[in-house]
Write a structure and sequence with these properties.
Blueprint: E1 5-8, H1 14-25, E2 29-34, H2 41-45, E3 49-52, H3 59-73, E4 78-81, E5 87-88, H4 96-124, E6 128-132, H5 145-165, E7 171-177, E8 191-192, H6 201-214, H7 222-234, E9 247-250, H8 252-271, H9 273-276
Parallel strand pairs: 1-2, 1-4, 2-3, 4-6, 5-8, 6-7, 7-9
Helix pairs in contact: 1-7, 3-4, 4-5
Bound molecules: NADP nicotinamide-adenine-dinucleotide phosphate.
NADP nicotinamide-adenine-dinucleotide phosphate is lined by residues 9-16, 34-36, 39, 54-56, 82-85, 105, 132, 134, 177, 179-180, 182-184, 189, 218.
């Protein structure tokens, strides 16, 4: 693939920052975005354009941001909907505000960026969306109901989005990483809501400690992960000659978790098939 214009959300650290570094090194044009652009000033001096983009903004503000972004190079070819954060809390006493904020970031804001880019992509009958989902979409985990739920909602939103736009020349890739060594579990980024319910305290105490200790111990290398994603988008490296996929598991832990979920689901389906299938009118 020739040089392209990429817009990336959440580039202050982790996958987002790796996208900027890798793409600049490959000679592509990059619009690096962040909610606080002072954190990505270094990317300007390395050749990227920078722009403020906060996923908590409403649709009209996101539309304006994307209009500004298109003006920078006259077009956008690839949008990487990357930004996100992890919120931990027990479902029973989780606040509405915390839950909404997680869904706003992972679903409404993320899909809002995609919605804002669609007229541009449709008019050119070209464009690629990359969404950073998670293996969390494949199964609930204790104290992560908002994170898992919002990534699952993103998964099906993206599937719908794909079904509506693939005949318009638009490509969409949902990437589902396992655990990667980014700043996601850094205590400054991850939110831990303590429970007020004694019954859950042993669970949260153990889990919160475990996740905090896992920061910078995750097996996945985000530089390698991003390299693979860009190869898939560009049809290069191991992805050369292969059809563009709709989803991509990233990391061996992601492959194992998704395979297990598929196998468990098939087993359950077969075990209950007779009862499940006995509900049509005679
Ligand atoms: N690392 C993993 O193990 C893993 C696994 C599965 C999925 N993911 C997904 O990968 C994506 C990137 O995360 P990461 O692992 O690279 O974590 P990270 O290093 O913490 O980076 C997250 C980025 O998202 C930005 N962000 C958070 N809320 C935002 C908002 N409202 N508006 C704009 N930007 C916002 C952060 O900016 P600030 O500096 O302003 O906070 C930061 O740049 C996320 O969607 C995450 O859910 C990660």
């Amino acid at each position: 693939m020739a040089s392209r214009v990429w817009l990336i959300t959440g580039t202050t650290s982790g996958f987002g920052a790796e996208f900027v570094k890798n793409l600049l090194a490959r000679g592509d044009k990059v619009i690096a975005t962040a909610r606080d652009t002072s954190k990505i000033k270094h990317f300007s001096s390395q050749g990227a354009a920078t722009l403020e983009l906060d996923l908590s903004a409403d649709q009209s503000a996101l539309n304006q941001t994307i209009e500004k972004a298109i003006e920078i190079y006259g077009q956008i070819d690839v949008v990487v909907n990357n930004a996100g954060y992890s919120h931990f809390g027990i479902f029973e006493d989780e606040s509405y505000e915390n839950t909404m904020k997680q869904y706003q970031t992972h679903v409404f804001g993320t899909m809002g960026v995609a919605r804002a880019c669609l007229p541009h992509f449709r008019s050119r009958k070209a464009g690629t969306f990359v969404f950073l989902g998670s293996i969390a979409a494949w199964g609930g985990m204790p104290a992560l109901s908002s994170y898992c739920g919002s990534k699952a909602a993103l998964r099906t939103s993206v599937e719908t989005f794909q079904a509506e736009t693939q005949s318009l020349g638009i490509r969409t890739l949902l990437v589902e990483p396992g655990f990667f060594r980014t700043e996601l579990l850094n205590s400054n980024n991850a939110r831990y809501a303590e429970t007020n319910i004694d019954d859950y305290k042993p669970l949260t105490e153990g889990l919160f400690k475990q996740f905090k200790q896992y920061h910078q111990q995750q097996p996945g290398d985000p530089a390698k992960g991003v390299q693979r994603i860009i190869d898939v988008v560009k049809g290069e490296g191991e992805a050369a000659g292969k059809d563009f996929p709709t989803t991509l598991a990233l990391g061996p832990d992601a492959v194992d978790a998704i395979r297990k979920k598929c196998n468990d689901t098939l087993k359950l389906l077969e075990e209950w098939e007779s009862l499940s299938s006995s509900t049509n009118f005679d």
